[in-house]
Specification:
The complex is a heterodimer. Chain A is of the alpha/beta class. Chain A has one domain: 3-Layer(aba) Sandwich (Rossmann fold). Chain A has helices at about 45-55, 80-90, 95-100, 105-120, 125-135, 140-145, 155-165, 185-200, 215-220, 235-240, 245-255, 295-300, 315-320; strands spanning about 1-15, 20-30, 35-40, 60-70, 70-75, 90-95, 175, 205-210, 220-225, 230-235, 305, 310. Chain A has an eight-stranded mixed beta sheet with strand order 6-7-8-3-9-10-12-11, sandwiched between helices. Chain A has a four-stranded antiparallel beta sheet with strand order 2-1-4-5, with helices on one face. In chain A, β4 and β5 form a beta hairpin. In chain A, α4 packs across α5 and α5 (about 125-135) crosses α7 (about 155-165). Chain B has one domain (about 40-285): MetI-like fold (Orthogonal Bundle), CATH 1.10.3720.10. The interface of A and B includes residues 105 and 113 of A. Chain A: It is found in: Cell membrane. Chain A: This is ABC transporter ATP-binding protein. Chain A: It is a peripheral membrane protein.
Chain lengths: ~325, ~290
């Protein structure tokens, strides 16, 4: 059953007097218990998608389209309903755990405040629950941790605390906005493992935002690739790696360094990534695409079904049939 | 990651603390404490009745029972000084308390809701700041009538813009931090986040600015009393004493004006130094 549904979601932000489009019509469904990856370069508005879902867009943002959570219109929620929605339905894990915690309050304050206020627990019960939540994310000495301040904990531990806090409201959807980007690689693996385990044991739906295709594939059922404020390709993670359809995805997969191959230089996608507001009327990727034809610049491609994938490319079908060697850059 | 900003966390290093605060800072803190104690218990420890008139002793020099001598009306100067500390020193505290409470509430609300509320607050503050506080107070007292309550309220309102402007910029920086977003997505009410999380992080700046404002308030309240708009004679007050002592200055007996003036200068100077040190310390904590 569909838990979250984004329909033609558009977001415009006012930037210094002028309006800038950051989301240009995003359609995405997340089923209950499903994990979906949202992958793209910086500036492709991945985080804006997450912020739109939790209604945390900057003041002045104009939102168009529909966000439905469990059949309910999120954009139409009133003040009080919005707080309930944030407290119990959707939880967010932020990129930098050090910034996500108030430096002058203890871990215990941070965890218990939400439990007391949104779950209505008495203090002693909230503390016990907080210890349980910490145990669930792999922190065993919870009692001691509750008394500590954020600066006394390592980044990996803090991110676990943030995840524990996210679980406090028993959410059904977890938005993980680059939860491992600020951490080192070994900690990254631990955090991803925790998220994966929680999702399975609790039946949580997960929107995993990352710029790392491999990381997203390791935890997500389906992966959506974003470019310049729209989804350009969406398919099952394993399929996406085996048979990417959009030239941008192919480029991203090809651009990963490979330790088994000695290359004179890395295969990078030529040009600079576009921000959503810079996108031309045609295909946003046209300028960087090796397969661009006149139609690509004239017409904005729609997200269309191509075998198992949804692809936003005029030439996807032609490229698939006529040049099977296109995906060669992919690591086998 | 770059250096973390921990505004509320003080350095635990002993040497670091002393160097940031300095001898002058500690000295002014001591002065403030002593003056506060005197202001609280002054009327009870005064050796004589500060209102007792003895015209035979007019301008009489210091003697064993009267360490600072007598004023024009033959009242004991030391007793008047001690009793006057209450209005001269505690009055500014009330003024600043009022300005701090109102100013920081406005500032945090503006920073939190942003947009039109923030623009409106900034516009009003800019206009209010262009208007000298003392002039505003004189105007208010002229309308309402002289007296300590009117002068205190008028000065309190006059300092609100100074407080609000500084706190707003600090709060704006704090509201933009991720932890505020993290609390909002947990579904916590806005007022709670603002009061329990944002305010504690900008406290040091609020306290520092409050101490600086105390210095101005001390001088301004004394000035109002000096002009006859604040505390009314014969009630003892340092500003009133400076004014009353003027006739003595012309006759060669400057004691009354001088001792009250010295007290005012020392109090204002101590507040000023203390405020500067406190503000510098939180800037130091930010720079680390």
């Amino acid at each position: 059953m569909t838990l979250l549904s984004l329909k033609a979601l558009r977001v415009v932000l006012p930037v210094g007097g002028s309006d800038r489009q950051v989301l240009r019509g995003v359609d995405l469904d997340i089923a209950e218990g499903e994990s979906v990856g949202l992958v793209g370069e910086s500036g492709s508005s991945k985080s804006m998608t997450a912020r739109a879902i939790s209604r945390m867009l900057p003041p002045g943002a104009r939102v168009d389209g529909r966000i439905e959570f469990d059949g309910c219109d999120v954009l139409g929620l009133g003040r009080k309903e919005l707080r309930t929605y944030r407290a119990h339905d959707v939880a967010t894990v932020f990129q930098d755990p050090r910034a996500a915690l108030n430096p002058v309050r203890t871990i215990g304050d941070f965890l218990c405040e939400g439990l007391r206020l949104t779950m209505g627990m008495p203090t002693a019960m909230a503390r016990r629950r907080a210890v349980d939540l910490l145990a669930e994310v792999g922190i065993d000495d919870g009692e001691r941790r509750l008394r500590q301040y954020p600066h006394q904990l390592s980044g990996g531990l803090l991110q676990r605390v943030v995840i524990a806090a996210a679980l406090a409201g028993e959410p059904r959807l977890l938005l993980a906005d680059e939860p491992t980007t600020a951490l080192d690689v070994s900690t990254q693996a631990e955090i991803v493992a925790i998220l994966d385990r929680l999702r399975r044991t609790r039946g949580l739906a997960l929107l995993f935002i990352s710029h790392d295709l491999d990381l997203a594939a390791s935890i997500c059922d389906r992966t959506a690739v974003m470019y310049a404020g729209e989804i350009v390709e969406l398919q099952a993670s394993t399929e996406l790696h085996r048979a990417p359809r959009h030239p941008y995805t192919i480029g991203l997969l090809g651009a990963r360094p490979d330790i088994e191959q000695a290359l004179p230089r890395l295969r990078a996608i030529p040009g600079q990534p576009l921000a959503a507001f810079e996108a031309p009327p045609g295909c946003a990727f046209a300028d960087r695409c090796a397969h661009c034809v006149a139609a690509c610049r004239a017409d904005h491609p729609r997200l269309e079904q191509l075998s198992t994938a949804l692809v936003r490319c005029h030439r996807a079908e032609a490229l698939q049939t006529h040049s099977p060697g296109l995906a060669k850059g992919k690591v086998s | 990651m770059t250096a973390m900003v921990l505004p509320g966390v003080r350095p635990t290093h002993k040497a670091g603390r002393a160097s940031a605060f300095g001898l002058a800072g500690r000295l002014s803190a001591a002065v403030v404490i002593i003056f506060t104690v005197v202001a609280l218990i002054g009327p009870w420890v005064a050796p004589h009745d500060p209102q007792a008139v003895d015209l035979k002793a007019s301008f009489w020099g210091p003697d064993a029972g009267h360490l600072l001598g007598y004023d024009a009306a033959g009242r004991d100067l030391l007793s008047r000084l001690l009793a006057g500390a209450r209005t001269s020193f505690l009055g500014p505290l009330v003024i600043v308390g009022f300005a701090t409470l109102l100013g920081s509430s406005i500032a945090v609300a503006a920073a939190w809701y942003g947009r039109w509320l923030d623009s409106a607050v900034v516009a009003v503050l800019d206009v209010a700041l262009a208007f000298p506080g003392l002039l505003l107070a004189v105007l208010t007292v002229a309308i309402v009538g002289p007296g300590l309550p009117a002068a205190t309220l008028a000065l309190g309102v006059a300092y609100v813009p100074h407080m609000a402007r500084l706190v707003r910029s600090a709060a704006l920086r704090e509201v933009g931090r991720d932890y505020v977003d993290a609390l909002r997505v947990q579904g916590l009410p806005a007022v709670r986040i603002a009061v329990r999380h944002v305010l504690p992080n900008i406290w040091p700046i609020v306290i520092g600015q409050a101490a600086l404002t105390l210095a101005w308030a001390t001088v301004d309240l004394a000035a109002l009393s000096y002009l006859g708009l604040g505390v009314q004679p014969p009630q003892p007050d340092w500003g009133v004493m400076v004014a009353a002592g003027q006739s003595g200055v012309l006759q060669g007996y400057p004691a009354e004006s001088v001792v009250a003036g010295v007290c005012l200068v020392v109090a204002a100077g101590a507040f000023n130094l203390l405020g500067q040190r406190l503000l510098r310390r939180c800037e130091g904590a930010r720079a680390r």
